[in-house]
Write a structure and sequence with these properties.
By secondary structure, the protein is mainly α. Helix content is about 85%, strand content about 0%.
């Protein structure tokens, strides 16, 4: 595409995964609200079936929440590694390069905070489903 003069935008893989977790938690939240509504309107025969669906959804949300926790830990260790690498380069760099490295570290930290916030929100939403 770039050979044809087009500009190619590629989203960060981390952002895509974090968006996926957010999307999944929102979907599960909506499904749980729908099941709770159905439970109120259901007769005794269908309540057992709805309760089974709720229990399955809670299991799925627990599994997703665990995946989010692992992802947060992975992101944290990756971020620490990248910052350490940049700091190592920073110590040996000239002034012009130091400015670029400092800018890169700020951007890395900002992106990490944004992703951490998304994952934290998704995890919080899933935790509410289990209650």
């Amino acid at each position: 595409m770039s050979e044809m003069g087009a500009v190619v935008f590629r989203p960060n893989k981390i952002d895509l995964v974090d968006e996926h977790f957010t999307k999944m938690s929102n979907e599960m939240d909506a499904e749980m609200k729908e099941l709770a509504k159905d439970m109120k309107d259901a007769n005794d025969e269908t309540k057992a079936s709805i309760q089974k669906q709720i229990d399955k959804l809670k299991e799925k949300s627990n599994a997703l929440n665990e995946s989010i926790s692992k992802k947060r830990a992975h992101n944290k260790s990756t971020m620490k590694f990248k910052i350490a690498m940049l700091k190592g380069q920073y110590e040996k760099a000239d002034e012009k390069r130091k400015a670029r490295l400092k800018k890169s570290m700020k951007k890395l930290k900002a992106d990490n905070n944004k992703n951490k916030s998304k994952l934290k929100k998704a995890s919080k939403k899933l935790s509410k489903l289990v209650l």
